[in-house]
Structures are given as C-alpha cells and as structure tokens.
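A further point concerns the way the authors explain their paired sequence and structure data. The central task, working out the structure tokens from the amino acid sequence alone, is never made concrete. I therefore recommend that a typical entry be quoted early in the introduction. An entry of this sort, consisting of the sequence and the corresponding backbone structure tokens, reads as follows:
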Amino acid sequence: MTKLEFLARITEDICYEDLTPDLKDFCNEFGIETTRKMIQVFGGQKIYVTKPQFFKKAYKKNILGLLHNGKSLKDIALLLEITEDGVRKAVNRKNAIAKQKNYYKNFMPLKIYILENLQPHDTLDIDRHKLIIPEIIEELEDRGYFYTTEEVKQALCNSTI
C-alpha cells in the first residue's frame, strides 16, 4: 500500500462532524467528497485563494460590460465595494491599452519605412529632416498611408537606427 492509498482510506472515513469550522464552510459549498479530496491532496498546507478582482483581464472586461449595459460608475463601485476611482482606473487601463495598440497599428508603416530607407545620419540630423520629410510623406501617400509633417518629424526623432 502506498502513502497516497493510505491517505485515501483515512479520508474516506472523515465525516462532516469531524471537520473544523472553516472546512465545514468549504464542505457546505463544495460537498464532502471534494472536501475529502482537498484534505487528502493539500492536507497540512496553507492555501491562499485569490480574489476574483486579481484576475485583471476578466475583472476589467466585466466592468466594461457593466458600463456598456448602462450601469453608472457609482453603481459599479457599490456593487464591487470599491471606489469610483477604482472603477475609472480599470476602464482607463483598458482604454490606454486600446490606444497603444491603435498607435502601433497606425504608425507601423511609417516606422518600417524609416528603418528600411534611411541612414542613421538622416534621423539624427534635424536640419536634414526639413529635406526628407516631404519625400517620406509623398512616398507613403503613394502606398496609401497618410501622415502629417509633425507625425513624421516625431517618428524621425524617436527612431534609433
């Protein structure tokens, strides 16, 4: 007989009355068989069960769903027992990620063009920018991408080749 088999036999004999108050709460929620299995597998260990709000992606998705369905920040804050600022932060984090993805989607052709077609001295020389910005804008317009002079200038200044 293995240790695991022996522990299984012991846990089979555990009844509800043998449980500690916290295990009785667990048993009431999940049943005696699950409680026995937990005792068998995790007996003697401290277990921390994470709160749902620590699963950030699911938490934020559901807050946005509540907002989309017409709940106010105040209603959501009361429901979740957090501050309205906490609700705002969850929403703004999601919007910030969306803006960041949108930025990369919109500026990727420009960044790729700069990396493929320019030399390091082109991106570092501010005076040279005045000469090459119109060329870059025209070339990318021909490819179906439209950028302002400021956007191209900013991309040149932020590029490291």
